[in-house]
């Protein structure tokens, strides 16, 4: 795709920020999409970047797979780009067939955010989304804070406030390959342990059918450590999505932001990543549609990396029966905070 003049300006206007801890771990962030674009681990065998990313900001602007980006206002899908709140019908922009995906046509991943770097291990990105942006009600104030600790943990903290009733559901869309973003080892060669009790089957559009399916005796049961590729494409739900691209409902007693809800293991066992979150679910996506995506060291192909998008449930604005704790509906003039962290052990 040829970038427009405005898109080229946005790409040029973006900045890259580095955070480094005392052990030499380093992450790179971009004001384009408040994106996490590199995660460099100082291993005994040398430095290893375990995050898929674009080769430059023009490519980041052009790509459509959300490499490391903060997406919103509403992550994942809204069926037909339509919802009703307090008796009012809203139509938001559609950018995946009839669906609104990750906030619509001009979602937050394509915006240049303001940034404040407080110290070498912390940066805060901020954005104002005007009332009516992509069809959503109310003005939304967003702050995304990244912290890199000396314990090799990356913490992403979200703070939001809207002045009208509105769904708000932010996530980070990082793709991980713990063997290295330049490795030929795929997501399917990694092991995963995931404390999820149910998953959401989807229709052909990727929209949840409304059913919560117990993971017991299904190929979605990762409560015990399992190779991702072991039961791959062995059921109708996976075949319809080309792999795993499903919402996993996390164990409610673990979503305090401190306890581990998922552990992801490198093929050779030399790196582990533990995820903690305050969000009730996680979109588990094996990169099924990474089709010749320009990357830092090579073109990415299906299963080059895996995303763990912590979030409220997709299309939850249209499912009041799921309960308020899963819907992500923000009340006017109230501040909301969420957090997800990624602890690297090596």
Which labels suit this protein?
346 residues; mainly beta; 6-stranded antiparallel β-sheet; 38% strand
Walk me through what this model shows.
The active site is at 173 (proton donor), 309 (proton acceptor). Its EC number is 5.1.3.3. Belongs to the aldose epimerase family. It holds the Pfam family Aldose_epim. With 346 residues, the protein is mainly beta. The protein has three helices and 29 strands. The strands form eight sheets. The protein has a nine-stranded antiparallel β-sheet, with no helix packed on it. Strand 25 (293-294) and strand 26 (299-300) form a beta hairpin. It starts with a helix and ends with a strand. Residues 1-5 have low confidence and may be disordered.
Write a short abstract of this structure.
With 346 residues, the chain is mainly β. The chain contains three helices and 29 strands. The strands form eight sheets. Strands 10-11-12-13-29-23-22-17-20 form a nine-stranded antiparallel beta sheet, with no helix packed on it. The protein has a six-stranded antiparallel beta sheet with strand order 16-27-24-21-18-19, with no helix packed on it.
Portion of residues in beta strands equals 35-45%
- Broad structural category: mainly beta
Shape: globular
What's the helical proportion of residues?
under 10%
Separation of termini?
Answer: 39 Å
The main pleated sheet reads as:
9 strands, antiparallel
Overall number of strands? 29
Helices, by number, come to 3
Mean pLDDT equals: 96
For the CA atoms, what is the radius of gyration?
19 Å
Poorly predicted regions are 1-5
Strand order of the largest sheet: 10-11-12-13-29-23-22-17-20
Family: Belongs to the aldose epimerase family.
Keywords: Carbohydrate metabolism, Isomerase
Catalytic activity: alpha-D-glucose = beta-D-glucose
Pathway: Carbohydrate metabolism; hexose metabolism
């Amino acid at each position: 795709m040829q970038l427009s003049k405005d898109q080229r300006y946005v790409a040029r206007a973006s900045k890259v920020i580095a955070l480094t801890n005392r052990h030499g771990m380093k992450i790179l962030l971009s004001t384009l999409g408040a994106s996490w674009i590199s995660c460099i681990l100082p291993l005994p065998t040398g430095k290893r970047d375990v995050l898929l990313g674009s080769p430059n900001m023009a490519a980041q602007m052009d790509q459509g797979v959300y490499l490391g980006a903060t997406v919103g206002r509403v992550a994942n899908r809204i069926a037909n780009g339509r919802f009703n709140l307090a008796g009012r019908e809203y139509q938001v922009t559609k950018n995946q067939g009839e669906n609104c995906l990750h906030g619509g046509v001009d979602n937050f991943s394509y915006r240049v955010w303001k940034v404040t770097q407080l110290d070498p291990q912390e940066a805060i990105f901020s954005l104002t989304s005007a009332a009516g942006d992509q069809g959503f009600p109310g003005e939304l104030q967003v702050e995304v804070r990244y912290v890199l600790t000396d314990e090799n943990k990356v913490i992403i903290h979200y703070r939001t406030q809207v002045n009208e009733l509105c769904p708000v559901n932010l996530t980070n869309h990082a793709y991980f390959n713990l063997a290295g973003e330049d490795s030929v080892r795929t997501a399917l060669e990694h092991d995963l342990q995931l404390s999820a009790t149910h998953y959401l089957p989807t229709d052909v559009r990727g929209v949840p059918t409304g059913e919560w399916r117990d993971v017991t005796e299904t190929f979605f049961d990762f409560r015990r450590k399992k190779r991702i590729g072991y039961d791959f494409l062995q059921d109708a739900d996976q075949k319809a999505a080309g792999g795993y691209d499903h919402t996993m409902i996390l164990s409610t007693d673990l979503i305090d932001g401190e306890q581990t809800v998922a552990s992801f293991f490198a093929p050779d066992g030399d790196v582990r990543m533990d995820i903690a979150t305050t969000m009730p679910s996680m979109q588990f996506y094996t990169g099924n549609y990474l089709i010749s995506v320009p990357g830092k060291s090579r073109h990415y192909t299906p299963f080059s990396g895996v995303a763990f998008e912590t979030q409220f449930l997709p299309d939850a604005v249209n499912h009041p029966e799921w309960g308020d704790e899963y819907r992500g509906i923000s009340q006017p003039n109230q501040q909301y905070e969420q957090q997800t962290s990624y602890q690297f052990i090596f």
